[in-house]
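I am writing to request your help with a piece of structural work I have in hand. Thank you for your consideration; the sequence and its tokens are set out here:
=====
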Amino acid sequence: MIRKFDFLVIGSGVAGMSYALQAAASGKGRVALVCKTSIEEANTAKAQGGVASVTNLKLDNFEKHIEDTMIAGDYISDPAAVRQVVENAPAGIERLVRWGVNFDKNEQGEFDLHREGGHSEFRILHHADDTGFEIQRGLIQAVRRHKRITVLENHFAIEIITQHHLGVEVTRRTPDIECYGAYVLDPDTKKVDTILSKVTVLATGGVGAVYASTTNPEIATGDGIAMAYRAKATVQDMEFVQFHPTALYHQGETHPAYLITEAMRGYGGILRLPTGEEFMQKYDKRLSLAPRDIVARAIDREMKIHGLDHVCLDVRHKDAEETKKHFPNIYKKCLSIGIDITKEMIPVVPCQHYFCGGIKVDLNGCSSIHRLYAIGECSCTGLHGGNRLASNSLIEAVVYAEKAATHSLEHIAEYAFNDKVPEWNDEGTMTNEEKVLIAQDVREVGQIMSNYVGIVRSDLRLHRAWTRLDLLYEETEELFKRVKATPDICELRNMINVGYLITRQALERKESRGLHYTIDYPRHAYDQR
């Protein structure tokens, strides 16, 4: 079946929904919002901490936020991207509020601002400790109310469509690649539909599922990055994988692991060994408020030195009622596994959390493929550089959604549907009965990435990962050609593609920088700076 929409948005987190709302509000066409599961399930909903924006002008200013971002990114962030996000953040907050998102306020009616690791001032807007969930809730209501937005839940985008599908040879040197839409699997018919569009937006989120343990939901399989790469788009900074220092350590919970927000350390939480001994003073003068990469590596090292499977975060010295008020969901979650955080330390362990690389885009969210935009975690804007500053991701998504919407609306009249695109051809393929092979390969990808391409790397480990992933790639591509497209085989393909790209670009970076730490090119004293 062939369907036509002026705007095709793949992904339903804060980036995708923000773009969809602005495109629909323009009145310049119909919008399709493709969600691989339900519209409620996205990385956005898992974000606890908050949104960074300069708000208290008496103490804070744009230059401070810019400098904090550049420091966290190890000074390889794109200064233009950093300035664009920081200076447009307040307007982004206003848009979220207009769409129905609520942020906590103090008794004076002002935003109740938190401070998180790497930030020099209090500038984190939040909604208790479930800010992402609140943003997702507000945007979902706004999207469902809009008549020009068609929400396609449980639809799986398989490939974006370019000249390649018209029989034209497309390489990475082809200068004028264009996107005409996407092939999307319909869950009801089990058929692959052709969705033609004038503008296509990838907002597919992160890559956490390629690791054995992640705070991301299971759907974070790097689909947009893999699709764009196969279409010959430029990808960049794939080696910079962020591991959150403090996921709740609870055996069996790995996808997603429960996040203990950075705001809890900003609140005064102290990292300790299970014996009660502090250790961050050995690694950074900022102690528990050091940037995430430093804290994650410090915890990783302490666990290896002492043979531990976790360390602890301690808020017992804080007022109990205040702790419950600020972190009600964390308090409830920990209580459900027998831990009263007002009286006991919280067992924590690093796990994969965020991804700084992705589809390379310019200041308007344009990829290297014409008519294809990428926003949110699947994009590489240059904001994060070598490491993301806490709470910069949600506001980046909001700002770049606005920039992409503005740019695409200015050019939409120049584009037309390409009616020469052929429908998906799966003649001769068979129903996939080899589910056990796919499940095993998914587990193997997670083990390869966590063991060899994790917090601390080496050339030997990276080469081993490359070899294993190459074998999986060959086996999976052969299977994909023989069977009908299903979400599980497509996700496996994407995970292998993303794992390969992370590994390859990690090997190419002959230094330890930001989140990429290798023992073959070590920085001094475990990256004390």
Q: What stands out?
A: The two ends are 57 Å apart (CA to CA). Confidence is low (pLDDT under 50) at residues 525-529. Residues 459-482 form the longest helix (24 residues).
